[in-house]
């Protein structure tokens, strides 16, 4: 095949911040115990010194081995004012920005740095009251191309009232208007990834949801992971695939998912006239209970196959601009989301 599927988690914390284990241990766990192909640390940047950032960058580059295990250099910019965002560089280095710095604490500084270094900016747990994202405060479509739709905190796709079975329940819960679907309705062209936001030292195989202490951990979810279609397992190919939104999100279940509109893969933006044939193909070791196609933010078509492998085809006869994505629910309740496709 021209492309293969690779699994990863780009959001993990260390004991230099508010997590467990050192960077080397976390990289080794992600590679050798969770069997991830792609990994990144995203430590709270305001908790790192310049020397510690140099060490983090060195560890990530030491563990980057094309064809076996790909790492990205990145950090979390933890602004409660502008919304938490992770920044990932395409190469072996990049500057550290701290949200508590007078200049670096401005959202435009994050976007400017990302544009200069051709980096990706990824907002996460957007729906949360305390650490979420007010979409009205700013957006740069050039570099803010992905959103972390699910993590241990829960699912920011849509509200509980709209049918979200895993809403964010900690730190004040969720705030209306800050869900991913709200951003898409504002014409934010986000691809989807799942992330861990791991603090328990087990990226890709978390135990947060099984812990009883501290009390708030009872309200956490399974972590998210991402799937990336790329021609090879190299830093360049993986970053290019993420840049092109050729990826999808899951609740740490390795569902194989393809979603196409007019033969175009997830993440595509194109124009067409006439009918729009769509295809969803999903396979899992747990039966696929439900497949849904979301059109312009509303459920539009669905199937309930209850099979391990399923192909679902449907046409949209309407010609107006629209965006679509697929949501897959397994029999055990775990979710998978394709990145959207936009037809202009």
Q: Would you kindly provide a written description of the structure presented here, covering whatever features stand out?
A:
The chain is of the alpha+beta class. 15% of the residues lie in helices and 32% in strands. It is built from five helices and 19 strands. β11 and β12 form a beta hairpin.
Tell me the β content: 25-35%
Count of DSSP helices?
5
Which stretches are low in confidence, meaning pLDDT under 50 for 5 or more residues running?
A: none
- Write down how many β-strands occur, each being a DSSP E stretch of 2 or more residues: 19
- The oligomeric state is single chain
Give the integer mean of the pLDDT values: 96
How many structural domains does the protein architecture include? 2
Largest sheet: 16 strands, mixed
Question: What is the third-level CATH name, the topology of the largest domain?
Answer: TIM Barrel
SSE layout:
Blueprint: E1 4-9, H1 23-32, E2 38-40, H2 50-63, E3 70-77, E4 85-89, H3 107-117, E5 120-123, E6 146-151, E7 154-155, H4 180-185, E8 191-194, E9 225-230, H5 235-243, E10 247-250, E11 256-261, E12 264-265, E13 269-270, E14 276-295, E15 298-303, E16 307-316, E17 322-330, E18 335-338, E19 341-343
Parallel strand pairs: 1-2, 2-3, 6-8, 13-19
Antiparallel strand pairs: 1-9, 3-4, 4-5, 6-7, 9-10, 10-18, 11-12, 11-14, 14-15, 14-16, 14-17, 17-18, 17-19
What descriptors fit this protein?
alpha+beta, TIM Barrel, 19 strands, 2 domains, 16-stranded mixed beta sheet, Immunoglobulin-like, 5 helices, single chain, globular, 344 residues, 3-stranded mixed beta sheet
């Amino acid at each position: 095949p021209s492309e293969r599927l690779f699994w990863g988690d780009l959001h993990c914390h260390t004991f230099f911040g508010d997590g467990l284990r050192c960077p080397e241990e976390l990289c080794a766990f992600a590679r050798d115990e969770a069997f991830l192909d792609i990994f990144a640390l995203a430590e709270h940047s305001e908790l790192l010194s310049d020397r510690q950032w140099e060490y983090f960058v060195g560890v990530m580059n030491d563990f980057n081995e094309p064809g076996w295990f790909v790492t990205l250099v990145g950090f979390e910019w933890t602004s409660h004012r502008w919304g938490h965002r992770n920044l990932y560089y395409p190469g072996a280095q990049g500057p550290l920005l701290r949200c508590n710095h007078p200049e670096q604490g401005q959202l435009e500084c994050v976007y400017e740095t990302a544009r200069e270094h051709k980096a990706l900016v990824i907002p996460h747990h957007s729906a949360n009251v305390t650490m979420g994202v007010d979409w009205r405060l700013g957006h740069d479509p050039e570099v803010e191309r992905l959103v972390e739709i699910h993590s241990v905190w829960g699912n920011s796709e849509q509200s509980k009232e709209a049918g979200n079975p895993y809403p964010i329940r900690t730190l004040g819960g969720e705030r209306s208007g800050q869900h991913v679907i709200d951003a898409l309705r504002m014409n934010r062209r986000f691809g989807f990834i799942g992330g861990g936001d791991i603090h328990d030292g087990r990226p890709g195989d978390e135990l947060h949801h099984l812990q009883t202490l501290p009390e708030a951990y009872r309200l956490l979810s399974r972590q998210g992971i991402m799937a990336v279609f790329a021609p090879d397992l190299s830093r360049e190919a993986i970053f290019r695939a993420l840049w092109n939104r050729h990826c999808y999100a899951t609740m740490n279940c390795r569902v194989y998912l393809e979603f196409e509109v007019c033969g175009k893969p997830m993440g595509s933006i194109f124009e067409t006239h006439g009918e729009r044939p769509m295809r969803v193909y999903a396979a899992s070791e747990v039966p696929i209970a439900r497949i849904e196609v979301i059109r312009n933010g509303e459920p539009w078509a669905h199937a309930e196959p209850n099979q391990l492998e399923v192909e679902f085809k449907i046409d949209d006869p309407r010609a107006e601009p629209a965006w679509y994505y697929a949501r897959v629910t397994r029999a055990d309740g775990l979710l998978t989301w394709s990145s959207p496709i936009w037809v202009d």
